[in-house]
Amino acid sequence: MEYVENPADYVGATHRFLIAQFEDNGKNIVLSRRALLVQELEVSRKQFYETVSIGTIMDGTITRLMPYGVFVELAPGVEGMVHISELSWSKLKHPSQSVSPGDRVQVKVIGIDPPAAGSQIKIALSVKQISEDPWLGASERFHEGDKVRGKVTRCVDFGAFVEIAPGIEGLVHLSEMSYKRRITKPQEVVNEDESVSVLIKAIDLDRRRISLSLRDAEGDPWLDVPEKYAVGDSAEGTVEKKEKFGYFINLSAGITGLMPKSNFSRSSKPAVIEKLREGDSLPVVIEAINLKERKITLAPGDAAHERDWQEYSKDPQASLGDLGEKLKAALASQKKNSI
């Protein structure tokens, strides 16, 4: 690194110069300010290198930002580099998320490479290692079952990573995104840099992994099923997904039941059910509820009339079978008397 001074700074000022040429007994003297500065920088560098070592902590000034990191001036003519991964315990996409040119920062020397031919000594620095690794105190700050706020840092095919503290990320798997609907990609629920509430499901400090849940933070709608639904109840549902074996019918937010294809025939108009599309509404009857497996079996809404008729026909007081028997007896008696 070289320093170039403004020529205007020389006017009226006193500076030291290096005599570059001395000829004709002093009649022809050539002075060089630049050469003197180069000499002074070399002396400064030498003194710095004699005192610096791995582990040294010092202050510096950010001079340049690059996609891969930042350069920090440690002393006149001496720069070190902080790789982007050493700027912060949090994952950064670009150094500008953490620092700006001209910022004063405290850094720790983490590497010193001997100079190659024609180059200077390379000094690797770290900003984040000035502070304690956040994972060391994670067991005291976070516990399974805690509900915390965090920022979505990345969306991947299998879920989303959420930073719940600087340098501490957890994963919300796709299966933990929502109770209310089936999720095929995380962007259906969250976006990068969005602030969300999550519930801590599991902590593995040895592997530095935390399992998080968005849906548990919102609450499990299945807890209310016993109060909202009972076998025999009629309800209005919406076709959520059509499969060969039946239709998944959404009853309310987060609650979906299955109408097996074998139950279609119980409707007075099974062909109408066959032609339904996803998003169409459909009257249904709750046939069975399995809370442990989170399953609800459904039948067509008009199947309830069939069941009501069957129940009615079993009533001895309303049995048409008894009436039929009486009619048969009366006809038989009439025929006997006529003979």
Keywords:
OB fold (Dihydrolipoamide Acetyltransferase, E2P), 7 helices, alpha+beta, 339 residues, 37% strand
Whole-number mean pLDDT: 83
Order of helices and strands: EEHEEEEEHEEEEEHHEEEHEEHH
Strand order of the largest sheet: 3-4-5-7-6
Estimated structural class: alpha+beta
How helix-rich are the residues, as a percent range?
Answer: 10-25%
Fourth CATH level, the homologous superfamily of the domain at 222-301:
Nucleic acid-binding proteins
Number of helices: 7
Which architecture of the domain at 222-301 does the CATH hierarchy give at level 2? Answer: Beta Barrel
How far apart lie the N and C ends? 134 Å
Strand content: 35-45%
Major β-sheet, in short?
5 strands, mixed, barrel
Describe the global form.
rod-shaped
CATH first level of the domain at 222-301: Mainly Beta
The tally of beta strands, per DSSP, is: 17
Oligomer: single chain
CATH fold category name of the domain at 222-301: OB fold (Dihydrolipoamide Acetyltransferase, E2P)
Spans where pLDDT lies below 50 across 5 or more residues: none
Radius of gyration, taken over Cα atoms and rounded to an integer in Å: 40 Å
Task: Give structural notes.
With 339 residues, the protein is of the alpha+beta class. Among the domains are: 52-130, Beta Barrel (OB fold (Dihydrolipoamide Acetyltransferase, E2P)); 142-218, OB fold (Dihydrolipoamide Acetyltransferase, E2P); 222-301, OB fold (Dihydrolipoamide Acetyltransferase, E2P), CATH 2.40.50.140. 19% of the residues lie in helices and 37% in strands. It contains seven helices and 17 strands. It has helices spanning 33-51, 138-141, 215-218, 225-228, 270-274, 303-313, 320-338, and strands at 18-23, 28-32, 57-66, 69-75, 78-83, 104-113, 122-126, 147-156, 159-165, 168-173, 195-204, 209-213, 234-243, 246-252, 255-260, 281-290, 295-300. The strands form four sheets. The protein has a five-stranded mixed beta barrel. It has a five-stranded mixed β-barrel with strand order 8-9-10-12-11. A hairpin with a 2-residue loop joins strand 13 (234-243) and strand 14. The termini are far apart.
